[in-house]
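queue> holo job accepted (shikimate-3-phosphate)
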Amino acid sequence: MGWVLKKTIVMVGMMGAGKTSVGKAVAAQLGVAFRDSDAEIEAAANMSVADIFARDGEPFFRERETRVIRRLLEEEPCVLSTGGGAFLSARNRQMITDKGVSVWLNADLEVLWNRVRHRDTRPLLRTANPFATLSGLFEARVPIYAQADLSVISEAGCSVNDMGARVVRALE
Ligand code: S3P
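queue> job finished
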């Protein structure tokens, strides 16, 4: 019999940390399915996350996010990338900790900013000073991400596959 993943690996961390791209690499390296909570929410609503925020507001999005994560954690173990805000709610953290293994992709502010600055897909960064906003979120969130089961440093020069391999090693 082959090797079996017992718990879902849940990627957490700031926007721009690489949760989706590294999560896909981890899933490929382990030979398991990859899921993404933002993508699931978008597919179900047939709308982008930015449009959901604009039309229905953040609390509505957060409800959807909790529901999607709860459902995915009930399914076959896989690699699950979550949106940057998902791990902040105590209720989500509890669910993730009970049913999965959380991995914080820990990138510094400069790396994050360089990755998100040219993309207009993040509703939370649609402010007069997106860097100040990102920096404020970073300060507030890092202590919460640090509660994840594992932490892997996401470096600027490290390829997605190398990052995936680092995560796989951390899981061993
Ligand atoms: C959010 C991050 C986004 C998305 C939404 C809110 C956040 O996901 O869920 O815009 O609160 O940090 P990514 O981390 O994949 O960008």
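queue> The chain has a mean pLDDT of 95.
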